[in-house]
Amino acid sequence: MKKEPQLLYIITQIIEEDTKNHKKPCNLWSFLSSSNLHGLKKEVDLKMKIKDVLGQQNATLENVEVITKEEPRQFEKYGKQLKVCNARIKDDTGELKLTLWNDEIDQVSKGDKISIIDGWVKEFNGELQISAGKNGKLAKAGAETPTKDAQE
Q1: pTM (2 decimals)?
Q2: 49-103 pLDDT per residue, tens
């Protein structure tokens, strides 16, 4: 389906006005995630760069490189054994912390190119970080089927 530039322009204008009225930054992904326009997200091809990522929003980053990966840590929560691992990703605009959970840890290695589709960005200890979250997907770049984190 052809993407409509006029629709994108209208949405951009709405977002700019909303940002002025609420005195806080807003971008198209967070606007779509928090509005009744969820179906539009599938029709509009938006590729974010790391420099455009804001906290408390959904984000899609494509073809980013994993530049570091720490050792996984295990812990128990609500009687469940969980694993978590921090990594860093980069694109041509900057770097960002990536949190990997459970099965995702073994799917990603330093040097891999990955995509995070509809991931969740938050600020933790003064630093922005992204994870696939409950609704997002993580995939190696070029992979046909993104993998889903089993965390809950």
Answers
A1: 0.66
A2: 999 888 888 889 999 999 999 999 999 999 999 999 999 999 999 999 999 999 9
* Domain count across the chain: 2
Nearby residues of 149 by Cβ (< 8 Å), 6 or more positions away: 101, 102, 103, 104, 131, 132, 133, 134, 136, 138
SS3 breakdown of the chain: % helix, strand, coil, rounded to 5? 25, 40, 35
The verdict on 57 and 121 lying in the same domain is yes
User: Position 109: which residue type?
Assistant: S
Query: Domain residues for 26?
Result: 1-46
Q: What are the pLDDT digits (tens) for 97-124?
A: 999 999 999 999 999 999 999 899 999 9
Structure tokens at 75: 């812990």
Claim to verify: residue 124 and residue 70 sit in the same structural domain: yes
Taking the C-alpha atoms of residue 47 and residue 51, their distance in angstroms, rounded to an integer, is 12
Domain identity same for 82 and 142: yes
Given 46, 62, 80, which residue is the final one in a domain? 46
